[in-house]
Amino acid sequence: MNHDAKLRQLAARNPLRQNLQHSASRRRFLAGLAAGTAAAALPMGASAQTRTLSLLTWDAYADPRLLDLWRTQTGVDVRYEIHISNPSSVNRLRAGETSVWDFINVNNPWARNVMWPAGLIRDLPRDRFEPLYAQMKPKFAAPYKWAMSEDGNHLLGVVQRYETFDFVVNPNVISPDLAKDEGWDLFNNPDFAGRYGILAYEDWNVMDICMGAGVHPFRVKTDEEVAKFEETANRWIQNAAFITTDFVQLNQGILNGEIDLYFTGGTYTTAAARLEGITDLYAITPNSGPADGKGGINWIELNSAVNNPDFLEAAFDWLEFIATPDAAELVARGNGNLQPVSQMAQPELMSRFSAEELAAIQWDEFDERIANAVEFDIVPDYDRLYDIYSAAMRARG
Amino acid sequence: MTRLVMTLWVGALVTLLYVPIVSVVLASLANTRYMRFPHKDWTTSAYAEAIASHTTWQIHIISLNIALSVSVLAVILGTLGAMAFARYDWRGQGWFRRILVLPIFFPQPVLGLALLLSFTAAGIPPSWKTAVIAHLVWIVPIVTLVVSIRLFGYDVAQEEAASDLGATRWQVFKEVTLPQLAPGIVSGGLFAFLLSWANLPLSAFTSGADTPLPVWLFTRTATNYSPLVPAVSVIGTVVSAGIVLLAIAALALIRRRT
Amino acid sequence: MRSPGFWFAAPVIAFLTLAFALPIGIVAWTSLMPPRTFDLSLPPTIANYTAAITEGYGRPLMWSVIGATFTTLVTMLLAWPTAVILHRHAGRWAIVVAILIALPVFISESVRLFGLSVFLMPRGGILAGSLQAVFGLQIGSIQNSWPGALLGMVYIHFPFMLFPLILGISLIPKDRIEAARDLGANRWQVLCEVELPLAAPGLAIGALLTFVLCLGANAEAAILGGRAVTVITAAIEQRFGYAQDWPAGSALTVMVIAITAAIVLPVLARLDFDRLTKR
User: Fold this and answer.
1) ipTM of this complex
2) What class has domain B53-257?
3) Sorting pLDDT into bands at 50, 70 and 90, what band is B215?
4) Which residues of A touch B34 (CB under 8 A)?
5) How far apart are CA C276 and CA C174, in angstroms?
């Protein structure tokens, strides 16, 4: 048995831990104790795992409280770099950074469609990790399609945060009920030309434009559908007030009255602002749309172990750790941004969130939003559609 | 009259240059992510958070390691390069001038990715040290150009006179050439430090897991902005400015002694 | 024996051969691979170059060239009088002002642009918010427009023009200007006949740096420009990023380098600094 897992269990079993978790000196004491136990339990030649656990991760997992909890529980040091988009991190791994990182989290299709086939991530032992899925919302029951390789044989990660990611309106200008009914046609409405922004998460934009063009994003497209996509892409990109990769700018744009709505967006882009008491931002998932009658898209974050040639067993321990209730709670509140996590199926975990927090993530309608959404999938003809989309961007201005 | 105009011009310019900086400082004194100026509450809590965070110091140490290494190496290589670029006429100089500027023609994000691929091919794991090499590829040409300016219109007769008086080559370089180059070298060193300290696109691809300050600031701004970001920026500026002022003071002291 | 020039060049040449030859080789070779592949052992093709010409990349390139030209000219106009004042008239204040101008550059570009955008933001921005609070004035904003991006480019690149220019102006001997004045030259003639040629190395190198850096600039159009236009670096990043098309991105990179070289190198070669500065 590897010593890190053992340590973690030791620390977890420690009766002192629950009560004294917030005492810094005790924490240091426990860390010292853990380190001491490690030294005693593994006398010689066991220092193979001296490398720091390295995370290429979304910001929520860089929360210092989460990292401190991990260090206390395992004694393994950890470092991180925040990543800004799925493709830029995939590029870094492709270019050779698999030797640097142990852990990466991306949205489901990027893991399944890009990283696994390119050999950038390794599969997880199913007997060890599938039990984690039993602690989650029922929709994630193992084997959960989006956590598996395309052939269904390999478990590629642990799902954690998820939500629908569609568009955001200023509810003082457009009532949420109207927005849900209108759905993507809001952006086709000439009245809103120049009154909306685009968050350039570009693979999402492609799917949204499909929705707006009345085309199922995850079906193979006919030439006629591609033509509809092209017309919509040109119009939507031309009519956007501004386009940015920074969602804070879009939220500011709504607060400043520059725009009334933007796509793509959801709880991820609005929760921190709503928690601050800002009422001008509201995440919308359409009631209906062209994707099997649905208009929303649901992303699922997949946490994976990088295929590092110098594999660190602690990477698996970390994947197990983030699914524990204490860690999942910290992830859900990561660095002050709120995001629903799959473990919210557990009533005990749910009870830790305040009414204000739940209002910030629009929890009362969360199940409805998920029900009105299709799961983030691989877009057939993506290359063709993306080329149309990026050509429309170049032609802007 | 003209004196007044000149003072006004320089004053206005410096003021304008500081507008964004003052804005960053003001943004760091808010307690909200979504600022509406003037703030309702003014607070320094972002600074308290920044100072207490281990990450703040780690990213500064990494950035300092990179920027100081880059400055020293770039000044040495750039000064030698400038002699070849502008002091001497030699066969191959035309090609040297052309090839030297090529790295700065490269869009930086692509150069960063290409360098990462090269390090991988050479079996060098990316870390802050590879970031130093990456920065040098881009900064050595710039320092060479900056130092070269002082060498155009340089009077070779001084060197010849020194040689005639029996000075060795090294003495000529040290006593005659270097003093003439000094302002260029100081400017070049300053350029090297600040270009490295503030670089984002090259570091993002080549520093591996050693996250430097600009990368942290950028990623945090893009994914989860809070007043912590401007607070860390202000701390970073104070640190780097302090180091440069110290360096300038040290240079002045050395000059006074000799 | 080789000339000393060669020996002085040798370390730089050695360094660039080691650290730069491989990256440029990789990019050049990747640009010849079939689109959207990651394998470098496929048969070469020029498909990416034809696509680069036919797929509407002219517009982004045009915006980049316009932005670079505009920024070079404006920074030159701003930096010349500043450099003259600092070098000739500021006396002991020169070093203080120079340090004051250099300090902001120590904040990384994205943060300074963020500061500028916080300042320019409509309504709750620092300018608009202060005017509203103090004078009750409501104003518009140039944020999220191409002029906003240009303002950012001038702001970011001003020091790249100024410092080389100060070095260039320091090359002008004072007695030359006085001699020209004594011979009856007016201000304009002094500027054109004496000052500009003598300061040419500084001016040319400042212009070279500013122009080239602006051609590759991306953050200004992204942060302040609201992507009102797409600049060429943004178009290239799209190929490498969401398109996952490294060969096409590489081909565009090679073309940008070639175009930059075609604009800059002839100018650089034609400027015979020695003749200009020594007459």
Assistant:
1) 0.89
2) mainly alpha
3) very high
4) 248, 251-252, 255, 273, 276, 278
5) 17
